[in-house]
Amino acid sequence: MKKDFLTLLDLTPEELQALLKRAAEFKSGKDSSACPLIGKSIGLLFNKTSTRTRISFQTGIYQLGAQAIYINTNDLQLGRGETIEDTAKVLSRYLHGIVIRTYEHDTIVTLALNSTIPIINGLTDLHHPCQALADILTIQEKKGRLKDVRMAYIGDGNNVVNSLIEAAVLTEIDLVLACPHGYEPDKAIYEKARSKGAKVKVLANPDEAAKDADVLYTDVWISMGQEKEIERKKKKFEGYQINSRLLSLAKPDAIVMHCLPAHRGEEITDEVIDSPQSVVIDQAENRLHTQKALLEMLVR
Ligand code: CP
Ligand code: NVA
């Protein structure tokens, strides 16, 4: 039976560990001639912009021996009213997998339900699980462990943090969140994670969250599709910037993470994102290795 990757919890803890191990092997170059997907075609269906997700998938698919077919969903008949259900059924006859980036999470759930091929979430308004895979690998590499790593996410309770909350379910990362009132992460995702025993809690104060952290993580205050809210939202986020003062509250060897793209001067300062403690470029590189391991695991 096909397996989708719509949220991080589509993986078991054991599958996640196997994926991280395989990603590290790909990264080491040990298996650079392996072409497990030779002759296959993977569709990349995007209707939001992307630098990392698009290029890392396209490159990774090529390295695995398959071809990537990139298309903006507006150029499909979908853009003229063809249903997702019909699109899913037809594309299942041509392709061996689909990576999709779109707005409503329900769109990819419908796509997955009507496809016979694996569907991979390349970001929705609710989740960004491929990002979380790279984030977990990066933490493991930089800290040498995941267990009890104190990770402070400071900023908007968006798709990126929703997937980090699910990362706390699958690993023993200790996640603390500081989000302005009204911008907390998705309640259902948070409560489900807590009920599954994840070490995750919301703190009101960014300083309290940053204190003694091993990892400081942030993301943009205005995600794609939320551009209407800009001025009102920025006011609410004053005090939630990762800057040198906040970084000084974390452990001296803390690392700084951001999924990128960053809005420098808003959620993070130049000084911090360009500091030796920042691992954002390694984090971006790890998208390639983890997604190759994911594709190898899912695409048959
Ligand atoms: N982090 C991330 O998903 O970046 P892109 O929007 O460039 O793909
Ligand atoms: N939260 C951001 C992540 C971009 C990779 C967005 O959805 O725009």
Q: Can you summarize this structure?
A:
The chain has 300 residues and is α/β, with parallel strands linked by helices. The protein is 42% helix and 14% strand.
Per CATH, the superfamily of the largest domain is Aspartate/ornithine carbamoyltransferase
Uncertain residue segments: none
Question: Compute the gyration radius: what is it?
Answer: 19 Å
Total domain count:
2
Cofactors and ligands present?
A: phosphoric acid mono(formamide)ester, norvaline
Question: CATH top level of the largest domain?
Answer: Alpha Beta
How would you describe the oligomerization state of the chains in this entry? single chain
Major sheet size, sense and barrel closure: 5 strands, parallel
Strand content: 5-15%
Overall 3D form: globular
Helical content stands at 40-55%
Please give the alpha-carbon distance between the first and last residues: 10 Å
Estimated structural class: alpha/beta
**What name does CATH use for the topology of the largest domain?**
Rossmann fold
Return the string of H and E elements. HEHEHEHEHEHEHEHEHHEHH
Major beta sheet, strand line-up: 7-6-5-8-9
Number of strands: 9
CATH architecture of the largest domain: 3-Layer(aba) Sandwich
Mean pLDDT, rounded to whole units?
Answer: 97
- Total number of helices: 12
Supply the key terms.
Rossmann fold; binds phosphoric acid mono(formamide)ester; 2 domains; globular; binds norvaline; five-stranded parallel sheet; 300 residues
Structure description:
This protein has 300 residues and is an alpha/beta fold. It folds into 2 domains: 135 residues, Rossmann fold; 153 residues, Rossmann fold (3-Layer(aba) Sandwich), CATH 3.40.50.1370. The chain is 42% helix and 14% strand. Strands 7-6-5-8-9 form a 5-stranded parallel beta sheet. Helix 6 links the parallel strand 5 and strand 6. Helix 1 crosses helix 12, helix 5 crosses helix 6 and helix 6 packs parallel to helix 7. It binds phosphoric acid mono(formamide)ester (CP) and norvaline. The site of norvaline (NVA) has 9 residues, from helix 6.
